[in-house]
Amino acid sequence: MESSNTIQSVARTPGKRPVAGIVIGIIVFALVAGYLFGGRGGSDTGKNSSPASAPGQFTKVPAAAPSSGARDASRVTADDPAWGPPGASVTVVEFSDFECPYCREAYPTVRALMRQYGDRVLFQYRDFPISDIHPDAQKAAEAAACAHAQGKFWDYHDLLFQNQEDLSREALTRYALTVNADIAAFNRCLDGGLKAQEVSDDLQDGIAADIAGTPTFFINGVKYEGVLAEEEFTEIIEALL
């Protein structure tokens, strides 16, 4: 009883806190801070990849030479969706995953830059679905490719990121309806796996280029891993124009 009364007295004394309470408070603060800030910035990686970048950082690394038979991942391809003038002096090739939270974080910045530099810079989207941690990413990438076949890619791309919490098969068709795609053709494309190889080719090109996670950007051949802030992106692009 005496120890209980002593504890109560300390708790009521202004300006003082029990040591145990302070320790618990520090632990709770650390856990909350880790939850709030641990998921910001960086990149998503697969189980065999290197760790994600530290929060709020990106990594600039030399682009690896493509392995035999692989396309150069930093180069613009003919079959992947692009925005901007062909032959632009500055190219931004993004490898992304529709289920990746870091890619969703990066997407508004990339779209803003496309609007700002769309007449001078060519942006291209390529697929890098990390299926071991994102089970819906592969099919979402195929669905976007099916939308691309109908000239609906960018609107569909935006819907996938805006509704990332639901990439179910039913939702993929619903988003296609929203962008006014030909649903019969879209479903034949998606259910028939007509774009599966195209997505796989992108993935293999990325692996050959030592891509460790998403998003990864190649800006005029230089690889940047992780989420870039708009001002960082702008500084890089302006230096190249």
Automatic annotation (TrEMBL):
The keyword Signal applies. It comes from the Bacteria. Residues 59-241 form the Thioredoxin domain. InterPro entries: Thioredoxin-like_fold, Thioredoxin-like_sf, Thioredoxin_domain. SUPFAM superfamilies: Thioredoxin-like (SSF52833). Keywords: Disulfide bond, Membrane, Oxidoreductase, Redox-active center, Signal, Transmembrane, Transmembrane helix. Pfam families: Thioredoxin_4. Residues 44-82 are annotated as: Disordered. GO terms for molecular function: oxidoreductase activity. The chain crosses the membrane at residues 20-38. Belongs to the thioredoxin family. DsbA subfamily. PANTHER family: DISULFIDE BOND FORMATION PROTEIN D, GLUTATHIONE S-TRANSFERASE KAPPA. This is Thioredoxin domain-containing protein.
